[in-house]
Design brief:
Two copies of one chain form a homodimer. By secondary structure, the first copy, chain A, is α/β, with parallel strands linked by helices. Chain A has 16 helices and 17 strands. Chain A has a six-stranded mixed sheet with strand order 2-1-3-8-7-6, sandwiched between helices. In chain A, helix 3 crosses helix 4 and helix 11 packs parallel to helix 16. Strand 2 of chain A pairs antiparallel with strand 2 of chain B, so a sheet runs across the interface.
């Protein structure tokens, strides 16, 4: 059986003019991929009715499923609902259940009920749709079944869209499709630029069977390799991964589709380790990424970001002598930061970053991109030197990502 | 004159399966909008040659400009260049200049020269294209002129793409189009949900002239209102903004397309104020957002993230009595955190966050979403209570955003 084909359409000028990044599509694509759909394309279009209808005409004939987000807000620039209704040949009617939802949502939020015309208009739906009521916002979803293609429209506000998808739309998909979740594994590889890794793996790659699909997924500091089985066979994937480990085993640091901060969360919880963070060049990013995982308060104790030498000395107890002799961006400072922040917060682990993120502040000896990462674990401390290229944001991201991977490496080595 | 029409195409399975968020499109859309182009649509497609050619066929007849990113990497899953060449009817040839670029790039990066077949293949270009050499990576850009539409392909790695766009593509666009940058202003409004703001502005909105386009751009904690003039007239925009100020003047906190952290950067630099941050529920996010602005080291001194009560007491000197009597999530704790972090780092300003980001940790009295923001400026300190809904990420983002806006409000009030 061929996989079902799906496309995602996001509607709204704010994406087309670059005011917001379309994160909804990536979230939905990930969900659909896991449910076994093949995503053929993603389009962002304006809320002009003619373009909405043209897009639906092009995509509904090529796909089994279309997910539409956006264009359902309470403001006047949203014309999606009318365009959908016109395309699917219905008429707009007031839905009393949705109106009740909106009333209770607004009353709860404001403490009193005052319905605007905009709010009331949100209760209008197409009479040829199945209405998907929104429990945490005012815009309902709608499902249309037309020419062997299911089209589902959702609000564009990310948390409303996600809530609707997880609580209602998955059920609707399970009713209408034979869901066969994709089989795949994802490995996190550090230490290689993409072209070198491809080079190193070229022999292996040319021998993997056609039923296995390989994808390189690079991001700052790490390349994830994803192997998926088109024949839904776990054994084939596992065989290939065994071969892969014999080639680049040392560089495979983690597994799983999740980000490294989730891997850390699991590892620290399993080991019962606590952690604290000392930052300079990453300015809070490392701490924030660790804390972004729900439940981080079980292992994360806190962090200190110290930009100036004085702050490094006073708040992180880095010796003035160290700063004077080796500088703030040095192995010695990184090690003292890691060790001392662990002692400040009384944790098993301390990690630190100190470097030059730019755009200014570089010297010939220590150019922009020079970063030291210090890692203290249960009495042992060391620091690793990195030389990153490119801009401030990328340098910060790579530093935070690699600090986390280097920590994982060391914890695993300790057994 | 009607604006030029442009579309953006991103190529690569990693977007279609939701492994990465397409941030390139938003960046390019923003650039094109400022140059006066009207972006008609954005598409993400696979690297299947048939789909690439079909997409170009559909879009080149509707647009004056197509920007293509991605699908130029050194790994085997990239087939974009061949598909472009086939569509535009050329043949692939080795470009010696590009090969030299690749050689020197690799030699510089590795310290020695070892060219893989993959690297060599990157120097192949279409003979019907103008080659755009890449100074900071191995994949060159190409420009095609076909049927009154310019198509430009760029690497997908964000910093390479941006570098190529800013250093070469803008010049190519200026050669080929009469560039007329868009006139617009963007106001940052806090304190209103989108529907309430739309309601409050409905009379004003129905009276703005057709030559002014209004867009609501909501993000966690702030709605940006953008007024653009289709007739390129600044005076029309300014008139409307004067009217807007008379309706919601108090809620307009900042202006400019940039994020609030850039506004803060300018404000603090102008005033010569220094700042330090004390965080609990935002876990480093507030600090990281302030530091994300280049030059932040001129005003940002550092931050302390303290999760436990003990850390709040020991590192931020919050009195045990305060923690015991009022709790960690309280006005009193927020004020002490803000005041004390300013004294720890010897700064003019201290801001703090303490709250319950969830998903667990809420109580009846202090449910998930309860946040206190403390602000200390030059001897004066207060704290503001917020009750946010929704998930951990949104609560953290809103807290960080509103902490920055509330600080701006207070600095402006001080004159």
């Amino acid at each position: 059986m061929n996989p079902y084909r799906a496309s995602i359409v996001t509607i709204g000028d704010e994406i087309l003019i670059g005011q917001i990044i379309d994160s909804n599509s990536a979230w939905l694509a990930d969900k659909l991929f896991h449910l076994g759909f093949k995503i053929t394309e993603i389009r962002s279009i304006s809320d002009q009715p003619a373009q909405i209808e043209q897009t639906l005409a092009e995509l509904t004939i090529k796909n089994d499923l279309i997910l539409v987000t956006g264009g359902l807000g309470p403001t006047n620039d949203d014309r999606t609902k009318e365009a959908l209704n016109d395309f699917f040949g219905g008429k707009m009617i007031m839905n009393e259940n949705v109106l009740d939802d909106i009333k209770s949502f607004i009353a709860k939020r404001r403490g009193y009920l005052q319905l605007s015309d905009n709010n009331r208009a949100q209760a209008m739906v197409s009479d040829v749709s199945t209405v998907l009521r929104n429990a945490i916002g005012t815009a309902p979803g709608q499902l249309f079944n037309h020419n062997n293609c299911i089209t589902i429209s959702m609000p564009g506000v990310p948390f409303e869209m996600k809530h609707l998808f997880e609580n209602q739309i998955i059920k609707e998909l399970e009713k209408r499709f034979e869901i066969r979740p994709n089989k795949y594994r994802t490995l996190h590889v550090i230490g290689y630029p993409e072209s070198e890794l491809a080079n190193k793996l070229s022999d292996w790659e040319s021998n993997i069977p056609d039923s296995i699909e390989l994808a390189y997924l690079p991001s700052p500091g790490v390349i994830r390799l994803r192997l998926s089985s088109l024949s839904n066979n776990n054994k084939d994937i596992n065989n290939q991964i065994d071969k892969l480990r014999s080639i680049i085993g040392d560089s495979i640091i983690a597994e799983g589709k999740e980000k490294v901060e989730h891997t850390i969360g699991k590892l620290l919880s399993d080991k019962g380790y606590s952690i604290a963070v000392a930052e300079s060049c990453t300015g809070g990013l490392l701490s924030q990424r660790i804390v972004s995982v729900a439940g981080a308060s079980n292992y994360f104790q806190g962090s200190i970001t110290a930009y100036s030498n004085e702050a490094k000395h006073r708040l992180l107890n880095v010796k003035n002598e160290t700063l004077k002799q080796h500088g703030a961006v040095s192995k010695e400072t990184a090690m003292e930061m890691a060790k001392n922040v662990a002692s400040q917060f009384n944790t098993d682990i301390g990690i630190s970053t100190t470097g030059i993120a730019g755009p200014t502040g570089g010297t010939t000896e220590k150019p922009v991109g020079t970063v030291w990462i210090g890692i203290y674990i249960n009495g042992e401390v060391d620091a690793i030197h990195f030389m990153f290229t490119h801009n401030r944001t990328v340098i910060m991201e790579r530093s935070a990502t690699l600090a986390m991977y280097e920590m994982i490496k060391r914890i695993k080595k300790m057994g």
